[in-house]
Amino acid sequence: QVQLVQSGAEVKKAGASVKVSCKASGYTFTSTYDINWVRQATGQGLEWMGWMNPNSGDAGYAESFQGRVTMTRDTSISTAYMELSSLRSEDTAVYYCARGPQGTGATIDYWGQGTLVTVSS
Amino acid sequence: DIQMTQSPSSLSASVGDRVTITCRASQSISTYLNWYQQKPGKAPKLLIYAASSLQSGVPSRFSGSGSGTDFTLTISSLQPEDFATYYCQQSYTTRAFGPGTKVDIK
């Protein structure tokens, strides 16, 4: 069965960076599925951050995160990473990795368990 | 980026009610619109894809319609397990979500 297992909770100081991992299993990591990253602050809605193609390494980011987020992968261990820099208190949220088919019209079908990132001043 | 809006932001309804949620895109997205349900502390679950296609395993009381910029999610007869927050998502360019509609008990 498809599983996405994320790294544990993080506490960071404002201005620092955080790197969250997402280990995929149950399917071929480099097949026709992107890894998306979505975050959700407590009591708030879902905010899509960007996508990464695990096969090519290509990535695309939401405008609001351009210049601050980097999505990468290590195909040898079927793991995707999301690094967010210049953290501020508003970045405190649960961060999800989520699998979705590639291309226009794609959905998101499997989600990780979420990683809580807390940013303190 | 294409912006998504939803209305209402919240609603109160009773079991058995017919519920309709609206989603609007800032420009045409054809039928590249998905709907998700999220319950507290859980990851979202896909309900409807391509505006009107029911995801496998989702009850038939859920339906979607629309194209271009205006879309609706309808729950024909609200059940106790349907109290949740619903999000639309465009998949035409990015994967941006709407702000959500919380459905709670009247």
In short:
Chain A has 121 residues and is an all-beta fold.
Q: How do the helices and strands follow one another from N- to C-terminus of chain A?
A: EEEEEEEEEEE
Number of helices of chain A: 0
Order of helices and strands of chain B: EEEEEEEEEE
Mean pLDDT of chain B: 96
Poorly predicted runs of 5 or more residues of chain B:
none
Our measurement of the CA-to-CA distance between the termini of chain A, rounded to an integer number of angstroms, reads 40 Å
Largest sheet of chain B: 6 strands, mixed
Q: Please report the total strand number of chain A as a whole number.
A: 11
Question: Helix- and strand-based class of chain B?
Answer: mainly beta
Poorly predicted regions of chain A are none
Radius of gyration of chain A: 14 Å
Q: What shape does the CA trace of chain B take? A: globular
Largest sheet of chain A: 7 strands, mixed
Number of helices of chain B: 0
**Strand percentage of chain A, roughly?**
over 45%
- Into which percentage range does the β-strand content of chain B fall? over 45%
Strand order of the largest sheet of chain B: 2-10-9-4-5-6
Q: Class by helix and strand content of chain A?
A: mainly beta
For the residues shown, what is the average pLDDT of chain A?
A: 96
| Percentage of residues in helical conformation of chain B | under 10%
Describe the protein's architecture and organization.
With 121 residues, chain A is mainly β. Chain A contains no helices and eleven strands. Chain A has strands spanning 3-6, 10-13, 18-25, 33-40, 47-52, 59-61, 69-74, 79-84, 93-101, 110-111, 115-120. In chain A, the strands form two sheets. In chain A, strands 2, 4, 5, 6, 9, 10 and 11 form a seven-stranded mixed beta sheet that branches. A four-stranded antiparallel beta sheet of chain A has the order 1-3-8-7, with no helix packed on it. The model of chain A has no long low-confidence stretch (mean pLDDT 96). With 106 residues, chain B is mostly beta strands. In chain B, 0% of the residues lie in helices and 48% in strands. Chain B has no helices and ten strands. Chain B has strands at 4-7, 10-13, 19-25, 33-38, 45-49, 53-54, 62-67, 70-75, 85-90, 101-105. The N and C termini of chain B lie far apart (36 Å). The model of chain B has no long low-confidence stretch (mean pLDDT 96).
